[in-house]
Every structure is written in C-alpha cells, then in structure tokens.
Amino acid sequence: MIRRFFKYLFVTLMVLGLLAMAAAGGGLYYLIVINPGPKIEQSYIQSVLGRESPVYYRDGEEKIGVLFQGTHRQYLSYEQIPKDFINALVAAEDDQFFHHFGVDIPGIIRAMIVNIKAGRVVQGGSTLTQQTAKNLFKRESRSFKAKLRELLYAFRLEYHYPKEKILEFYINQFFVSGNGHGLGVAARYYFDKEPDELTLLECAFIAGSVKRPNYYNPFTKKTEAAAERARKRAEARAAYVLGKMRKLGMISELQYGQAMAADIVFKRGKMSYALNTVMDLVKDGLADPAITAALEQNGISNVSTSGIRIITTVDQDLQEKTLYALRRHLSVLDVQLRGYEREQVQKEYTRIDFAGELEPRAGSFLFGTIVSVQASDGEGVLIQVDLGPKKPRGVIDRRGLARVLTAFVRYNGQRWSEVQDGDLALLLDQLKEGDRVFVSVRRVDEGEGTLALELEKYPKLQGAALVLQDGAIRAMAGGMENRYFNRAVKARRLMGSTFKPFLFSAALQLGWNATDLLDNRRNVFVFMDRPYFPRPDHHSPYDFVSMSWAGVNSENVAAVWLLYHLLDHLTEPQIREVAAKLDMAPGPATVARRVTTGSSSASGTGSESGSTAMSWPRRPTNSLSGRWRRIFSLRTGKRSTGSCWIFPMACTMTGIAKR
Fold first, then answer.
1. Which of 91, 388, 473, 611 has the smallest count of CB within 10 Å of its CB?
2. Which of 556-582 are b and which e, b meaning 16 or more Cβ less than 10 Å from the residue's Cβ?
C-alpha cells in the first residue's frame, strides 16, 4: 500500500513537473517569440541608439557641431566596424559569443569557481548579449527580478536579431567618457582617428576598456603621475586582449609580436563641440513649423536622433577669420576706451570663465599666467606666459604688445596719439609676474615648442558681425565668446548711420545719381500718420547737398528726405521687389514667388509669364542734371550684382578677414 502510494506520488510529481516545465516553456515561448513587447522592436532600439545629426560648413566636410539628444554617438553599421575590433571585443568579453544562445552556462560555472577561489568577484559570467540587453534596456536595480528581466531580454535579442546586429548594438552603446558612447566616439576621443584608421593595438585597447573606461583613461587624471599609471594599465590590458586573440587564432604570431612591440600613442581628439551661435541658429531654424512639417513628412520626428546631415551656408575659413577680427577689434577698442589698469583688469578677470581651446593654434584666444617679464633698452621685451597643463609655453614679444600699446597710449592721450619713448614702460608697469592675462596666438613655433602671443584685453564691450552673400549667411559672430546670446541677430540696437549706405545704395540702383541734390532743410515729414521733425546733432550750412556730400558728412536730414521720397508711396510687393534687387532677399525663387503672388495689387500690368512691371516714384527736379526722368521699371527675375554696396559691414569684415 505504501509502496503504491509513493509510486503514485512519484508519477504525479513527474506529471506536475512536466506540466510546469511545459507551462514555463510555453510562457517563455510566448514572451520571447509571440509577444516580446515593443522594446525589442528595432525602431525602439534605434531611438535608444539615436544617431547624432552632424552640422557642416558649406563644403559638407568640416563639422561645425552635432545635434544629439542626451548621448553623443557616431553610429556605425556592422560593415563599418573594423574586423580587428570585433575580434578584440569577442576575445576580451565573450569568446563563445558566436556559439551560445545568449547565456554561456559553462562560462557562468567557470566564473563562479574562479570567484570562489579568489574570495571576491574577479571574473564575470555575463555574455555580450546580456551586456547589450543591460545597456539598451537599463537595469533599474541589482535585484534578482531585475536580473531575470535582463536575461529575458537577452533571449529576445538572440531570437529576433542575428549575432552581427547584436554586436552592432553593443559597439554603438558602450560608455566612453562624459556623454560619449560607442566606437566612433572612442576612436576620435582616444586617438583622433576614424574607426577604420585604428591599428590592431588601438582596437585591442578600446575593446579591453569597455568595462572600466575611466580606469584606463589618461585624459581624466588630474596629475601627470596618475595619467602615467593609467597609460601603463592601458598597455597591460591591451596586452591581455592581444594574448587572447593569439590564443583563439584571431591573429598570427607576427601580428601579435608587432602589436606588442608598439606603444599606445594617445592623442585626444575632439569628442564634443563648443557652443556657438551658428549651431543655435540652426536649431532655431529646424524648430520652424514649416521645416518641422517637411521633416515629419519624411518620417523624421526628432532631428537630434535622426542621423541626417545638415549643411549650412557658412564658410569655415571666413567664419574663423570673422570671429578672429571681431575679437581683436573689441580687445583693442576696450583698451582705447577703458584703458588697461592692472588692479581693475585682474579684478574683472577673476569673474571670467572663457572657454579656450584644448590645443591652441594660430588665431586662438585664451587666458594664461605671466611667469616672468623681461624688458631691456630698445626692442628687447619678453614676457613668458604659462597657458596651463599640457600646453606649450607662450611668449609675448615687442610685436605682441604693439596693438594694445597704441590703444593704451590713445586712452591716456588723444585718439590720434602715437607711441613715444617711455610709453612701453608705462604699459609694462601694468603687467606683473603672477598676473592673469588674456592673449591670442599669433604663430605656433613647432621647432621650439612655443607659441608667439599677442597681448589682448578681455572686453566688457560687445559686438557682432554678419557676412552675407547672395542672400545667404557666410559667417556670423554673435559676440566675444560667440555663444549663448547671438548679438548678430538678436541684439536690439538702433542702426543709426549704418543704415545710410543701404539707403544710398538703393537710390543709386533705382536710378538716382551721386550728384543729385537732396533737401537738407529741417522739413516736417509724415510718419505713421504723425508729423515727424528731425533734430540733427549739428547744423549744416547748406540747404541742398549732393548725395555724395550727404554720405561723406553723414547728413541726417538729407538722408531722411531721400528715404521719404523713395518709400512714401511704395506698396508691400514693391518693397519686396526692391529688396530682391538689392540682394536683401532669401533667393531668386522665393522672391519671384512672393512678387508674383502679390502682383495683382501692384501698379502696372502683368504679362502672361507672371512678371509684373512696376512704376516707381519720380525723382524731384532739383538735381544738377536739371532733367526730369523716371526711375527705371523693375522686373522680377533680374538681380543686382552690387552686393558690396548693400552690405558694407559684410564686405568690410570680409576685407579684414582676408588681409
């Protein structure tokens, strides 16, 4: 009886066990195959591994910056990943990756034995698939439940994606530094290279560092001694990975020997991009409803993770030279208007956080500390400047003081004063050992390992520059730092007399002559249904002056009179067409569309092609020619070539930059 009972019990337990296993298997099949959940879909994974969207200069090759959301990543497809790196990663992290189903049971047992013998955790048993699941789906805690969920996602990845795709996900997601992730960023950060340029040794190092990047990273260490220790750890880790690759037959003895004989040469590349007003303007433009709608029509809901290439109209060379010219001008102008008094300058500099470049080059502006000041009779001046750790020593010579010295003399004297004997000594009195100084790099002396510097003054004054050509922005500097507030487009400043060249250019292109007489008397004009009476800051001896005279002497009343007679009768479509003729419109297609649309309300007759002839106000008779004549009729489709008349500031800045 008892025997029969145990027999039935055994059978029952066996059946229940089989049913439980079947239920568990069915449940796993349902959760892995039938209903894996939305997170396993490639669209979700790609949103996690969002591709950054690079923003380029007009050449489409050099980057201004990148748009990304949260994580900086240069996404690589499996075909773009170097074979050496794939082998190095598999050797370092999971040599059975291409043979297991997401979990390496022998590897887990082996890791348990090693850890028990060591008395601590020295080896992990997780596979690359499990690590990919952890990186993609973010384990919220270290609880048993969280680990089971991670294991479930590993099974899902293995079922729904090939091994190559899982590797692609992992290689684009591992942490590098800061907000940088993936091999593309790692190659640039550690070695200033593209991934396909990496050597076998460099691949071995990066693959070996994915678990503990900061431990092997010399760039994050505060002292040179700590950085050297990190470099030694990096070499040891790379040697371990190379040894495993040789053992697994991934590399030959010759490749192993050559890699082991070489040193890891770290060269920090540009992983992040400085904030700048051009990038801000791009972001503002992409937020425009029309642009947003166009992107959404093409399936792009988030530009920052879409991976699209954005090419601007900005010219790199002109942009750099424009910013350089603006900074130099503001620096000297601040000295000329506010002087260079040591105590005041040092007090101001303690509150300034100016983001200089990691690797100074010609045209860079940065802060340094005076190490010594050596001055002798004649031209012998030498100021040694320490620019910070890992940067070459800088030297300010007599030439490097010339610009600030002239401005310093004019601040203390008259605006036309010139440098005299003894003035240099007065300026040097304001420069002492240990002082913080603001400098620009004039030249890099590669042979001597020094930088030829020019003394600058970080200004309180601000300015902006905008270089336009063919209705497009070629360069833009929004201020001294060229970030945050963009004074080139957002500053609300009265144009003042800088508007006069626009006005005179418009008159010339509309048929006026530089010798035509303008009424310079204090007339009353109607503006917005109110009387307007100009009050100039000086009295002109002439009631009538030529346009040339008005321009040279900046006659306000004559300019107002000219503006009044040019625009008082123009309709909106006519003003738009004037803008097109003066090169102030976005482009021919846009202008033609807008003018054609508004042609029904314009005076004149339209042709079948849609162009409209517009009649303009007559010029007054008080000209030196003494003849009445109509200002010529404009037709859409014709464009002015006088862009330098229309944008004097842009042409001036271009001239400065090219000199």
1. 388
2. bbbbbbbbebbeeebeebbebbbbbbb
**Looking at the domain that runs over 316-456, which CATH code has it been given?**
2.40.50.140
Tally of CA atoms within 13 A in the half-sphere of 272 that contains its CB: 15
**Integer CA distances (angstroms), 370 to 30, 382, 393, in order:** 71, 11, 10
Q: Is residue 231 packed enough to be buried (19+ CB in 10 Å), middle (13-18) or exposed (0-12)?
A: middle
Buried b (16+ CB within 10 A) or exposed e, 118-136: eeeeeebbbbbbbbbbbbb
pLDDT digits (tens, 9 = 90+) for 504-556: 888 887 788 999 999 999 888 887 778 888 887 777 888 999 999 999 888 99
Same CATH fold, 316-456 and 71-261?
no
- For 579, the enclosing helix (H) or strand (E) is helix 572-581
**What is the Cα–Cα distance from 190 to 234, expressed in whole angstroms?**
11
Strands 450-456 and 436-445: antiparallel
CA angle 405, 406, 410 (to 5 degrees): 115
Q: What's the pTM?
A: 0.58
The better pLDDT of the pair 358, 428 is held by 428
Q: What is the distance, to the nearest Å, from the Cα of residue 93 to the centroid of all Cα atoms in its chain?
A: 35
Phi/psi of residue 32, nearest 5 degrees: -95, -45
Rounded to whole angstroms, the Cα distance separating 656 from 633 reads: 37
So where are the chain's domains?
2-35, 71-261, 316-456, 496-643
Burial category of 220 from C-beta neighbours within 10 Å (exposed 0-12, middle 13-18, buried 19 and up): middle
Q: What are phi and psi of 437, to 5 degrees?
A: -130, 150
Give the sign of the dihedral formed by CA 644, CA 646, CA 648, CA 654: negative
Q: What does DSSP assign to residue 32?
A: I
